[in-house]
Amino acid sequence: MDETVAEFIKRTILKIPLNELTTILKAWDFLSENQLQTVNFRQRKESVVQHLIHLCEEKRASLNDAALLDIIYTQFHQHQKVWDVFQMSKGPGEDVDLFDMKQFKNSFKKILQRALKNVTVSFRETEENAVWIRIAWGTQYTKPNQYKPTYVVYYSQTPYAFKSSSTLRRNTPLLGQALTVASKHHQIVKMDLRSRYLDSLKAIVFKQYNQTFETHNSATPLQERSLGLDINMDSRIIHENIVEKERVQRITQETFGDYPQPQLEFAQYKLETKFKSDLNGSILAEREEPLRCLIKFSSPHLLEALKSLAPAGIADAPLSPLLTCIPNKRKNYFKIRDK
Amino acid sequence: MAGILAPGLGVLAHLERLENQTSRSRKRSEAQAQERVLGTKIQKLRHLRDDPRAALWHRRGSVKACIANVEPNRTVEVNEQEALEEKLENVKAILQAYHFTGLSGKLTSRGVCVCINTAFEGNLLDSYFVDLVIQKPLRIHHHSVPVFIPLEEIAAKYLQTNIQHFLFSLCEYLNAYSGRKYQADRLQSDFAALLTGPLQRNPLCNLLSFTYKLDPGGQSFPFCARLLYKDLTATLPTDVTVTCQGGEALSTSWEEQRASHETLFCTKPLHQVFASFARREKLEMSLVS
Q1: Are B144 and A96 inside 8 Å of each other by CB?
Q2: Do A207 and B232 touch (CB under 8 A)?
Q3: Is Nucleus one of the keywords (chain A) (predicted)?
Q4: Which of B23, B40, B59, B113 is deepest in the core (most CB within 10 A)?
Q5: β-strand A160-164 against A150-155: which pairing, if any?
Q6: Hey, are the CB atoms on A96 and B232 less than 8 Å from each other?
Q7: Cα dihedral: B169, B171, B176, B178 (round 10)
């Protein structure tokens, strides 16, 4: 086994927390059951890793096997990366998409290898008709850097792909081209949507963030939502603004629904607007150039936070449509200009 | 009868009266004829509706009679509670029956939630939902349509201008997809013995590629089939290529078989073709032994 491959596998396994190790190794399916049984997972991590490397050497792990382990690790730790969303489009009147996975993989690999000579491309298909692609980038003269790969998750026979943000921006056009050509599309465009949570991005992009639907068979009739007020509360206590509270609850429920919101970490608004004022002759009103500013809302779970603003009394209901349109418009980067 | 005071006028007026009378009676008889035709049509439709209903009531009645016979102590009196329960069951059954129409919907607070129930060859398959918000413009709020069905494209073409067309087009795509998926699933589950390798398929099930043998374990060469379904609203392939893995020049009988298989795959659903292969094989085996 190559020194670099051994080192690469070692560093990957070291990243895996002990409680996930057996699961990930089983998913990797490279070391056999018998081999895994010989390992004592209760030792100190370094010893476990050493033993595993020894087993990998016995089985002569290749760079491809190591790359596959890296993909599986990333699949288990998706939110360590920030994901961008890309949308492809076909030309007008193009043929029906007869997607052939083998053809796609070959084509994708060939395009990158033709351009860069030194590049490692690995694939792993998942059950949800998505293919995870791992690309380690090199140049004409340098070997690929296995420690800074880019991941692409492509949902076949859809126009959408998700790409992990990386600092190596110069390869993005080539990657876009490879993806577009291999999947028989014409153009690729980056959407203004970004998050660490791949599942949430998928739910927003494919409009599947709510999987409950009203049918005639649904057992629950439309119930009045309890305001979270204690029903056993003393009848001598009356809430002064109960009407207003009910109104806020109703509006919040209409806007956000009853389902868990997809998870985003921020929403960013770039404003470019001219100053508007009632006072005439103010210096700012005369300014020709628009004012520029950037507003960023951050939260561990932005949409749930927005949903709780009005019921908590912090904001008026209804909230600004700029905030509530995020899942519907599928963006969390906005540019607002004067019309 | 008009008087003979103004004979000319009187006659003309009389003639006019007679003309009106005939046209009126003609119109009346036409209307009556139409009424009769519509009446018979209504009766026919009523029969169509009532016959299964009558059959259902009959069956209910006979079931009740059976129960009464089994438990002779139970009195079969239809009190109010029971009558209401029966009505409720009836309504529920009718609503459930909407599933068999393939397309049903329920009004929601902001629009309508459409349910598309797919079927193939009389088998009820998966259901898909589309929740529509009735606003200007009409938009899809969320849905459970698989991501590879071109919902966005169909919506872009029809949703704003002709919602019926949108729904029917979506039904077409989903039913065809369900049908193709059903055939591929059946092939994998029921006829795995005849396949010599894994079935290659894509999400839309519109490109299927597999190798098969007519006599598993026998000496014959396996066939390779590649089925393309370029029409996403169809459950039969548009292009079929069957080749023989032997590589050598095929004898005429093999060539005939190959060509006939190509035709079979084009004209019959996949699992039915394999069912006929399996039957033929069984028949040949029984003839040989």
Answers
A1: no
A2: no
A3: yes
A4: B113
A5: antiparallel
A6: yes
A7: 150
How far apart are the C-alpha atoms of A230 and A228, rounded to whole Å? 6
Element (H, E) at B34: helix B7-70
Chain A residues whose C-beta sits inside 8 Å of any chain B C-beta: 95-102, 129, 155-158, 160, 206-211, 213-217, 222, 254, 328
Sequence-distant (≥ 6) Cβ neighbours of residue A74 within 8 angstroms: A80, A81, A132, A134, A151, A164
Phi/psi of residue A184, nearest 5 degrees: 60, 40
Select the CATH number that applies to the domain covering A81-204 from these four: 3.30.160.110, 1.10.238.10, 3.40.50.970, 1.20.120.140: 3.30.160.110
ipTM, two decimals, is 0.81
Model pTM score: 0.78
The identity of residue B269, as a single letter, is: P
pLDDT digits (tens, 9 = 90+) for B162-199: 889 999 999 999 999 999 999 999 999 999 989 998 99
Which pLDDT tens digit goes with each residue over A252-304? 988 888 889 999 999 999 998 887 777 766 777 777 788 889 999 999 999 99
d(CA A262, CA A208): 10
